Amino acid sequence: MSVNGIGVAGNQAWYGTRKAEKNAVSETTGFMEVVAEKAAQDKSDSDEKAFASVGANAPEEVKKAWMDAAKETGVNGLGMSGNGMLTHLSEMMVQRLENWVKGIGGTNDLLGSTVQSAIRATEEALYDLNHPLTAENLKNMDVYKQHMKEREFYQSFLEKLGAML
To answer: Contact at 8 Å (CB) between 96 and 89?
Structure first.
């Protein structure tokens, strides 16, 4: 005996409702895990793309340091978000542009081919970030926050590179 799915113990309507509730919870949990896994993969892919665009000739240990710093800080040195969009114009992007304008080397080889060259490029980016030519970008709080995250990435990346020497 049941009314609108509410029944006494032993009635199929009651058990069926309970089973459907459990399935809905497990499907939602599984879905959320898949979404989180996909977001993490997208983030990892964007970090690798960012590295490839500045470290085409960098050794594998520099790439590992880059990826570890990106994982640790949640950002990368180019300001690329998980979907591949730029969050702001990073200092390494400015360095790439300057190299392109001056016709110096490949724009995808900012970090060079050694740990020392990667340290020099990162120190230069960190210096430029700490000593901006203008204070215009400080008026925008979102850009300021992105610069703080970028600074955190560079410091972590330098720490990891320094440990290799």
So the answer is: no
